[in-house]
Amino acid sequence: MIFKVFYQDSAMEAPVREKTKVLYVEGESERDVRTKLSPFHYNIEFIQELAGAHLEYEKQSENFKVMQYA
Questions:
Q1: CA neighbor of 1 nearest in space, from 61, 47, 57, 60
Q2: Dihedral through CA 5, CA 34, CA 31, CA 68, nearest 10?
Q3: Lower CB density within 10 Å: C or N end of the chain?
Q4: Residue 56: what pLDDT?
Q5: Cβ atoms of residues 11 and 41 within 8 Å
Q6: Which of 6, 47, 53 is nearest to 28 (CA)?
């Protein structure tokens, strides 16, 4: 499954909406995605599973690149 992750670079700073970034991650569940991203110490705001028409829409974005973490 592909997940869209909304995050801030640092968990040590207060979240600011204008600094929110997006990352696409392949994983089996939301918990799996959080585990894969834990070494980076991101401040994860929201994780959204992408499927069907929503996934196809996101694939059209020039910023769509699925990150694969071991």
A1: 47
A2: 70
A3: C
A4: 96
A5: yes
A6: 47
In angstroms, rounded to a whole number, what is the distance separating the alpha carbons of residues 64 and 39? 22
Task: Quote the pLDDT of residue 16.
Answer: 86
* pTM greater than 0.85 (yes/no): yes
Q: What is the pLDDT of residue 70?
A: 65
Handedness of CA 67, 55, 41, 8 (dihedral sign): positive
pLDDT mean values, one per 10 residues, the chain (70 residues): 94 86 96 95 95 96 86
In contact, 7 and 23? CB cutoff 8 Å:
yes
